[in-house]
């Protein structure tokens, strides 16, 4: 996606811009391929200078903010650093039924192995917390879940969900643990049937979407909320799963 006209602008004012980022588009330029499109560049061609406030993974879709002034950038950054921004993600994952909210608080080490994954590390990891809530359960053990990261580490949701035994659809980097990570014989591995279950679904990227961001507006000093509708591949997958019915 390289055309600004295809972007969904969720909100714009003199101080910030909120966009529904498409899956597959980087937020900033690729470190090795400067010729690849990125969201910051596409927006800057229309709006002029913008400041990156936070990021989403390339395959993740959803709400993302950019500051339009240095002062807004400073104030928004402070909120992210102080963990005052509330973010809500929706995701599709395979795993056991989830009947109530769970809190996943395994410590995380960013770039912790040769694959540059965020890993569970009880010795050197930093405190991290993710709340996960069930929304809907489908056939073939697929769950629609809501994740609320209370900290904001790279790949936090993916690492925490894997540690809890869930596999985000189409995630080729993080696999579900067969036992809790604190067990000495715990091992992450992807059952062969998981990929088979995904082949019939419309979504072909990691099924993770940032649905909602709530923060203090840098100018008005009031709570401000941004909601990003599901993209087509996520919505079509949900509709297919709902048609097939639940467990």
Brief summary of the model shown:
With 247 residues, this protein is α+β, with helices and mostly antiparallel strands. It has helices spanning 39-47, 70-81, 156-163, 192-198, 232-244; strands spanning 8-12, 16-21, 51-52, 61-67, 86-94, 102-104, 108-109, 119-120, 130-137, 142-149, 167-168, 208-216, 223-227. Strands 1, 2, 3, 4, 5, 6, 9, 10, 11, 12 and 13 form an 11-stranded mixed β-sheet that branches. A two-stranded antiparallel sheet has the order 7-8.
Secondary structure: elements and pairs:
Blueprint: E1 8-12, E2 16-21, H1 39-47, E3 51-52, E4 61-67, H2 70-81, E5 86-94, E6 102-104, E7 108-109, E8 119-120, E9 130-137, E10 142-149, H3 156-163, E11 167-168, H4 192-198, E12 208-216, E13 223-227, H5 232-244
Parallel strand pairs: 4-12
Antiparallel strand pairs: 1-2, 2-4, 3-4, 5-10, 5-11, 5-12, 6-9, 7-8, 9-10, 12-13
Structure notes:
The chain has five helices and 13 strands. With 247 residues, the chain is of the alpha+beta class. Strands 1, 2, 3, 4, 5, 6, 9, 10, 11, 12 and 13 form an eleven-stranded mixed β-sheet that branches. Strands 7-8 form a two-stranded antiparallel sheet.
Amino-to-carboxy terminus distance = 37 Å
Sketch the major β-sheet: 11 strands, mixed
Residue windows where pLDDT falls under 50 for at least 5 positions: none
Give the beta-strand count. Answer: 13
Give the % helix.
10-25%
